[in-house]
Amino acid sequence: MVSANILASLFLFLSASQVATAADNTVSGEAITERYWDCCKTDCAWPGRTEWTQPIQQCDGNNKAVTDFNAGSGCGDGKAFSCADQSPWAINDTFSYGYAGVYLVEQVRDKWCSACYEVTFTSGKVKGKKMVVQGHNSGFDLLTANKFALAIPGGNTSFAGACAKQYGVDNKVFGIEDEGVSTSKECENLPKPLQAGCKWRFDWFMNETRPNASYKRVKCPTVLTDRTKSIRNDDADIKPEDQDAEEDSASSITYYSTLGLGAFTALLKFIL
Question: Hey, what domains does the chain have and what are their CATH numbers?
Fold first, then answer.
């Protein structure tokens, strides 16, 4: 006869397997968001971050592509900066594309660099709106929560003075340090390539600061990868956006949960 201890261990194993499947935060989860744009070479622009076609494209002071992936960051003594076209843009009142610095709890950068996510805002004035963003940077400044730092010119643009260096302007045009500009009108003081992304913040994003969001991994659309030139090798394994991978995952969890409970019931009947 099977002992009660063995039965209990089996049930705990099945339960733990289900939790592990549900908690895979590389696929989906809850996150916080914020704004940033510091003009520095992004973390996912360095070679070897993951398996891909190439690192995230970076630009020089004239927003021309830098072909040397080992070029130093403009936040130091280097000549590689963020490209202006890695700014957000709206498709309609409820959907936008963009880029983000990503951090997923207890994961490493090879899980998010160049990966794309559908981000659905769940709080604030943008609640219900969606974006699809590509991870072009890493957000290691907060390690206790999943985070998407949305790349928005004028959102926080003065770190290390790299934007002033890239565009040859006074650092003051980028607004208050660690905050950015205060109004849409002030976006017109930014270099021309950054103005549209800055105004997106006040229009589509309604000047939100840190709305909460849910997210799920999606196949990267070409409108994003055409700008970064970076496609992950595993992107081919991701279902298209019109096929909801999250629903399939939920169905799988339900199936295994039912299977686990069925096995538990059968063993219980055997013992009794």
Answer: 26-247 (2.40.40.10)
